[in-house]
Every structure is written in C-alpha cells, then in structure tokens.
Design a protein that fits this description.
heterodimer; A: mainly alpha; 11 helices; B: alpha/beta; Rossmann fold; 2 domains; six-stranded mixed sheet; 8 helices; 6 strands; 42% helix
C-alpha cells in the first residue's frame, strides 16, 4: 500500500477535526462562563484531567469491559456465522429459525436482566450473555444475506463443472459473501460495546459501564464522562481494527473496479 | 433436434421461447418435463452435469482471481490431469488465444472481448467428457467491434478446436458465419422447429458476410423468422 499524502488526510479528516475543535471550544467556554453547571456537563478539560487522575482506577475497569466485549464478540461471530451458513444451506432451518432471530431482537434486554443475573450470577457470563444477544444478530443476517448474493448464475456455472455443495460454498459463495460479512462484523463490534455497557449497568462490580454508573450516582460527572469517553474510544478502536483487517481478507486488488 | 459430432449448430428464436431453458436442460441443470436428451446413447440428467461445457452470457469470471486462476477453476473442482499438466495446457491455450500477456491480470483489467475469450477458454478447460459445448449468447453483451474481432478469432481457431458446439444467438450474421446448421425455435403452443442448413464452405473467413450466397441465406433466414412470428 502506498502512503497517503498529508494533504489527502487533511482533506478527508480536516472538516471533522475542525468541527470537533469548534464544539470543544464552545463547550469549554460555556462551562467556564457558568452558563452550564459543571455537575450537569463537565468541561472537556476536567474530563481530560479526570481521565489522567484516575488512570490507575480506570485501567482494570477498561480491561474487564474489553474482556466481556472480546468474549462476546468471538462467540457472536462463531455462532452467528455458523447459524447464517446453516440457514443458507438448509432451507427448513432458515424457515424454522428466522422468526426466532427476529423475536430475540425484539425482547427488551433490560427486562431480561434479572433472569440473566439469576442464571449466570454477577459473573463475566451474565455480561457476555447480554453482549451475545445484542451482537450476534448482525452476524447471522450479514452472513446469510452475503451468501445469497452469489446468485444462481455462478451456481449454475460451477454445477456444470461438476461441483458439489461444499465446492460451491468454498469457491464462490464464501468469497462473494465476505464484503457483507465484514459489514456485519463492524456492526457487531459496535453492538458488543453497547451490550457490555448495558450488562454492567444491570449488575456487576467492575467494568466501565459499572464505573460510570457509580460515578453518576456520586454526581462525579467528570469521572462518569471519562468512562463514557473511554467506552466510545474503545468502540472506535475496535471498529477500526476490523476495518483495517477487511482489505487483507478481501484481496482488494481483485474486487476493486 | 439432433447434433452430430464436430458440428456447429446455432439456435435462434424470440426472447422467452425457451432457448436458455433448452440449454440448461441439456447441461443437466434442469430436468425435462417431457422428451428426452440423449448424449452418446445416455439419457440420465444427473450424469450429464459436469460432462457438458456450458458458457452463459455473463463472463462470470471471479474478480479476485487472475486469468490463469480463473481458468484453473474447473480443474480445482474436477481434476482430470495433474496440476502441472493443466497449467501448461492452459498456458498454451492462452498464448493461442492471444492472452499470454494477461495471464496474471485480474478480470477488471481486461476489455470485454478479452474477458469473453477467457471465459471461453475456461469453458474449454472444463471441456466435459461428452465433448459438447453450449454457448448461451456468449457474445451478446459485446459491442459490434469486439464481437467482430471475436468472430474473426473464433473462425481462425475453429478447425483446431475440434469441438461440438451449440450456440444461442440473436445475431443472424453471427449464426450464419459460424454455424453448419441453424435451428429456428418459435415459442408458444404451435411450437415448431425449423432447420436451415448453412452451405457456406469451410474454412470460413470473417469477411464472408459480403458474399452473395451469405446475403441470400440471411434474407431467407430473416423471412422465415418473420413467418414464424406472424401467428
């Protein structure tokens, strides 16, 4: 890959950075001028100070959340892609399971939380369960839809070569499903962060979601915002990791027009 | 309808009269509702699949594979010879087809005509045990210039290929230029099959379409095509 010149970076991200700086300046001055009380909306500078001050305290919480996210993500990707592939290969399975998938997404998770706590206790697994329930759905749908995009034409062609079901899958259907699959992964990882936060809110003793809730209870807004900032940054970093991984898998050279 | 070994037969007919369905049935992708398809005295459709080479209208080259890898695809699915043998065979054909330089190119780097040639080569590699190639409007999506170029190239190559070919086309000149015989398919309830024998001498030349016999045949073909559509 050739390096992107600085000017192009500026072109791509300049407007975003400019707007961000503008918002930060307005925000900071609004708090400094006492237009907004600090316990309602702390100034960006005090959030930054809280981040640095409590870094020792925040690190284990960050690690706990990261663990929940990663375990939930791996489970979602494995189960989601297997289920999506299974639904694609066996029509009866698709007919039987698709409604349940939709139902699983319409259940309000908050209402289920007491049951999760009863099932899994205040352990890692109660959070992972919430993460999994929020995040596996996009993987299933993107896998299933991606495999279907390959269409009849490729299938017919390979069948005339004498291909069996698995060769169809390996040679055309899986490669053609990858772009859609990666879109699903990107959604999934973002949902994982949200799921982990909700899981920690529902009950627990560590994690950034738990921390932010405790700080909110103490009216320590700056600390709460620091945790929220970390959560959002975590989501962005994880998202970018998948976005960077994508071209390696897609062999961009070929699929780019 | 019957096709003899080594013949080039075109099938012409209005859209929707079932030409593609006919080809898919011959290839073994579909089961005939009635009637029989017999190839070398064998009529089972499950054994036909994988035996007959089939080339659809879209080139269907896999965009993430190079030209060579695309041509290797049939071998990956059904290895008939060793990999080394197949690759050298493909290389030989690539240079024969004027594609030697683009062996490592990706499909999006090729022109429409080249892509069709690669797809044609892949069909040849797929070969099939029955030695029959079904070409479902393979040059329909090409512009007039590339099409002309492909006809010229195909005519030059034809005698060496030693294949039995069935071709679907909407292009009357293409049909006359390439075929030994043309079947005229008319759809609907009064479905009937007309046969036209193209008695132009071989080897043919792509400029033959200016000769009087060619023009006479073309007129005849057009007249019959209209007659088939008036009722």
């Amino acid at each position: 890959m050739q390096p992107i010149p600085f000017k192009k970076y500026l072109n791509n991200y300049g407007p975003f950075i400019l707007l961000l700086l503008f918002i930060l300046v307005i925000w900071e001055s609004a708090v400094r001028l006492h237009l907004i009380p600090a316990f309602i909306l702390p100034a960006p500078s005090s959030i930054g100070i809280a981040l640095i001050e409590h870094r020792q305290l925040l690190r284990p919480h960050l690690m706990a959340t990261l663990q929940e996210i990663l375990v939930g993500f791996v489970l979602s990707v494995i189960c989601g892609s297997l289920l999506g592939t299974g639904m694609f290969l066996f029509r009866p399975l698709e007919r039987a399971i698709y409604p349940f998938l939709i139902i699983s997404q319409t259940i309000p998770l908050i209402a289920l939380s007491p049951i999760f706590i009863m099932w899994f206790g205040y352990t890692l697994w109660s959070k992972v369960a919430v993460v999994f329930l929020t995040a596996f759905f996009p993987v299933v749908v993107s896998t299933y839809d991606g495999l279907r995009t390959s269409g009849q034409a490729y299938k017919d062609l390979l069948l005339t070569f004498g291909a069996n079901r698995w060769q169809l899958l390996a040679k055309t259907q899986i490669p053609l499903a990858l772009p859609s699959f990666f879109s699903g992964l990107k959604l999934c990882i973002v949902y994982c962060v949200i799921g982990a936060t909700i899981g920690e809110w529902l009950g627990g003793s560590k994690g950034l979601g738990y921390f932010s809730r405790r700080m909110a209870g103490n009216m320590q807004s700056a600390e709460m915002f620091a945790a929220v900032f970390l959560l959002s940054a975590l989501g962005v970093v994880l998202f970018l990791m998948i976005a960077l991984l994508e071209p390696l898998f897609l062999k961009k050279r070929g699929s780019k027009q | 309808m019957d096709i003899r070994q080594g013949e080039f037969v075109s099938v012409i007919g209005a859209s929707g009269c079932g030409k593609s369905t006919l080809f898919k049935t011959i290839a073994g992708l579909l089961e005939p509702t009635h009637g029989k398809i017999i190839i070398h005295s064998n009529s089972s459709s499950s054994t036909r699949l994988g035996q007959i080479a089939y080339m659809p209208q879209q080139d269907l080259l896999l965009p993430w594979r190079t030209v060579l890898d695309n041509c290797l695809l049939p071998w990956e699915i059904k290895p008939r010879f060793s990999k080394q043998q197949t690759i050298s065979h493909i290389r030989e054909m690539l240079s024969h087809f004027g594609l030697a330089d683009v062996e490592k190119a990706f499909p999006h780097e090729l022109s429409g005509g080249m892509k069709q040639r690669v797809a044609f080569l892949r069909t040849l590699v797929a070969g099939g045990g029955a030695g029959l190639m079904l070409l479902d409007e393979p040059f329909g999506a090409l512009d007039a210039m590339s099409k002309r170029e492909i006809h010229r190239w195909l005519l030059e190559l034809w005698d060496e290929l030693d294949q039995t070919v069935m071709l679907i086309t909407h292009d009357l000149e293409e049909a006359l230029l390439l075929s030994d015989r043309i079947y005229l398919l008319s759809g609907g309830v009064h479905s009937e099959l007309q046969e036209i024998i193209v008695d132009l001498p071989r080897p043919r030349h792509y400029k033959m379409n200016y000769e009087p016999r060619f023009i006479a045949l073309r007129e005849e073909l057009e007249r019959r095509l209209y007659a088939a559509h008036t009722f």
